[in-house]
Amino acid sequence: MVGKTLMGTLLCLVIVASARAETKVAFDDKGLSSIQVNGVEKLVGGTPKIWRIRSESGKELSNKVIDLSFDPASKTLTQKFDWGSVVVAYEPLPQGVRLSTTVTNSGTETIDEVGVAMATVADLGEGSRIGHAAFGVEGPGLVTAGGADGAIVWASESSDKPLTIDLSKGQDSRTKAPLISARAMMGGGRIILHDVTAARPIKPGESEAFTVALRLGPAGADPIELAGDFIDAYRKAHPMELQWPDRRPILRLFFGGGLPKDQANANLKNPDAVQPPAPDPKFQAQLLNRMRDTVKAAKASNAQGVILWDPEGGTYPHAITYIGDPRMIRLLNPQMDLVLDEAVKILQDGGLKVGMTLRPPILAYSEQKDSATQGHSTHPDPLANLDAKIKYVRDRWNLRIIYVDTNFYWKPYGPEKKWQSGQLPPQLWKTLQEKYPDTLFIPEFGSPLDYAYTAPYGEADMGNYATPGLVRAIWPESFRVLVIEDADPYDNYERFVRAVMDRNCLMTYAFSPTAFNLVAMTRIYREADLRKAPPPAGVANADAAKLVEMLKDPAVITRFAAANQLRENPDASAAAALLASATDEKEDWLVRRASLRALAKTPNPPGIEAMIGLRADRNLGLYGAAGDVLTGAGPGAIEPILARIESQATSAEGDPKAIEQLGDVLVALKAKEQAPRIAEAIAKVPESARNAIQRKRALIDIAGKLGNEQVAPALIQTLNNPALRKDSAAALVRLHSAPGIARVKAMLEDAKKSNDAATVDALNQALRAK
Length: 770
Prior knowledge:
Blueprint: E1 12-17, E2 22-28, E3 31-37, E4 40-41, E5 43-45, E6 49-55, E7 67-71, E8 76-81, E9 84-93, E10 96-105, E11 111-122, E12 129-130, E13 142-147, E14 150-156, E15 164-171, E16 178-187, E17 191-193, E18 196-197, E19 207-217, H1 223-226, H2 228-237, E20 250-253, H3 261-269, H4 281-301, E21 305-308, H5 329-332, H6 334-349, E22 353-358, E23 362-366, E24 371-375, H7 382-397, E25 401-404, E26 408-413, E27 418-423, H8 426-435, E28 440-443, E29 457-459, H9 469-474, E30 481-483, H10 493-501, E31 505-509, H11 516-532, H12 544-550, H13 556-568, H14 575-583, H15 589-601, H16 608-616, H17 623-633, H18 638-650, H19 656-668, H20 675-684, H21 692-706, H22 712-718, H23 725-734, H24 738-753, H25 757-767
Parallel strand pairs: 20-21, 20-31, 21-22, 22-25, 25-28, 29-30, 30-31
Antiparallel strand pairs: 1-2, 2-3, 3-4, 5-11, 6-11, 7-8, 8-9, 9-10, 10-19, 11-16, 12-13, 13-14, 14-19, 15-16, 17-18, 23-24, 26-27
Helix pairs in contact: 4-6, 10-11, 12-13, 13-15, 14-15, 15-17, 16-17, 17-19, 18-19, 18-20, 19-21, 20-21, 21-23, 22-23, 23-25, 24-25
C-alpha cells in the first residue's frame, strides 16, 4: 500500500534567495513537489524512481513501491520495496536541493547494483549540452548541463566511494515533452580505472548511502558558475601539481624499421646472449642527418622539444606496435641503439627537450604464440613498470618529456576472474609527478583529475581541440597536447588558433622546416601571438579609408589588425584593397589570410578567378579562406568553379585535391543542379593520367554530396570498376538512391558468397556513409 495521499496539499515551502536567482523548493506528501527558479517551474517529477536493481546472481529485483511516506519535519521520504527500502532526506540549498540517500537491503540476496532517477527536470531548450557521466574517483563527481532555458549542476558529494551520476535525456511518456533525469547508480561490474570498479555490494541486513545535490539555474546561467563552490572545493583538495609553463609546439619522430621478427623473437628469448652488431655507417649517417633536419624544423617552428615515438622499431604489428620500452632497443633495433646517444645529443645541443614513448606493460616473448606479448600478469604493477622505464631514459639521455601510450592495464576482475582493462588512475600520475617534478607526462587518454598532474594527449581528427571546460575551470593552467595530423590544419585553422590562445600545446611531425603541417602549425602560433598582442593605436576607431591606408603600413601587425578590423566592419569600398593584399605573393601570409577573411564579409566580393586559384592551390594554404570568399560570392561563382573542375578533370596535369577543394565549395553553394556536369566529367578523365582514379574518386564524391539523384545511373555504372566501387557506393547512399542502394546490397551479397572480404568491408563502410 502506498501511504495516505493528500493530493495538492502543500506540506512545506522553502524559499532560498541567492545573488543569482530566487529558488523556491516545495514538498507534499510524496516528497519533493516543486523547484521554481525566478518563478519558472523546473521540476517535472520529484519522486525517486528505481530504473535498475539487480542481485549478485544477476536476478532483476522489483522496483514496485509497496509503501511510501514523507515526514515533513525532517523532509524525509521513505519508499519500501519487497527487498528493502530507499530513504531520501532533502535539504533545500541556494538554487537547488541536497538529497542524502540510504539504500537498505532487508532481503535474502546481495544487491549488486541499484540505479535511481532521483528527480526529473525540464529540458534546457535550444542548444542544450550535457556533460559526461562522472564517478567521483577519476575526477569531480560533477555533471553540468546548459542551454537557452537554464543550467543544471548534478553533483556527488558523499564520499570517496564510486557513484555513477549522469543527466539522461528523455521524454514524458504522456506529453512527449523532452525532459532530463538526474540519475545515480551504485554498484555494477564496470571498470572505472585500473584496480577501481563501481562495485558497492549491499549484503542482506546492510545499507549503502550516498549524497547528491541538484542545482538549477535560470535562462542565461553559466553551469560552471553555478558549480563554483564544488569546483573551488575540488581544486583545494586536488591542487595543480604539474608546472610546465612552456606551451610552444612539440614535434614527434617515427622511425619504424627494426629486426626481422624471427631475429627479434630469438633476442627476446635469450636477451643476455645478444651481442651488438657491427655499425652500419649508412644507417647512422641517415639517422644523424634526420636529427639535424629535426633541429632545423624545431627552430623554424619555435618548438620546445621532440618525442622519439618508436626507437625500438616496428617489428611487431598492432596491438603491440609501439613497444614503449627503450631498454628493448638493443634487442629489437640494435643499429638504432648504437647511434641513439649521438642522435639525442644533436637534438639536445640544438636546444630541444627530448622525449620518448613509454607503455605500462613489459614486453616478453611468448612460447605459446611464438611472438612478443605485452605482459600484464607477470608484472602486475604498472607504476613500478613505468618508474623503471622513466629511470632508464633519465639516466641514459636525461629525458624530460614522457608520452605514455595505451595508459591502460589488464588484470582479472570479479568472482569469475575475467581479464579486463582499466585506465591508469590519477594517483599514479600524482606519484610520478611528485617524484619527477621537472618532467612533462603526456598520457594517451586523460581522466579529469589526470590534468592536475599531466597534459593529456588528443588528436584533432577525433574532435579534440581544447582542454575540457570543466577541467580548465578547476585548474586554469591545465592543458592538452593536441596532434594536428589527419585534421586539415587550414580547414580547422580557427580551432587551432583558439587552442593555442587557450594555452594548449600543438604537436606534429618533424620531417623538415618545409613540411606541410609544420608550416601550418608555425602560422597558427604566429596568428595566436598577433591576436593576443595589443592592437596598434588608431586601428579600432579608424574608418574604412584609413584602414585601407593601414593595409600598406610597414608593420605586419598593423596590416594584420587593419584587415581584421575590416572583417569586423565590412565596407565595399575596401574590397579592391583587400583583394590586392590577399593576392600579393610578397605579402605576409597572415595578412593575406586576414584580408581574405575580410573580403569574404564584403558584399559581392571581386576576384572570383583569383579566389578559385587560391582555393585550388593546396600548398599555399589559403584555400580555406578563399573558399569562404567563393561561398560569399554566391551563385556567380558556380560557373567559373565548374569550368575549373572540368579543366582539372581533363587536363594532363589535373590535381585530384584541387577538384576536391573546389567541389566542396559547390556543395556549400548548394549547386545541386550542376551535379550532371560533374558526373559527365568522370568519363572525360584521361585513363592514361597518373592520378586518373584519384580524380574520378573526387568527382564521384562531389556528385554524391550535391544530392541530385539524376546522377545515380552514372554512379551505378561506376560501381563496376573495383577501384571506384567504394566511393560510388557511398555516393549512392548519400543520394538515397533506391536503385543504387539495391545494386550495392546485391553486390555485397555476391561478395559474401565469394568470400571477398575486402569488397564486403568496403561496401559495408559505404552503406554507413552520411
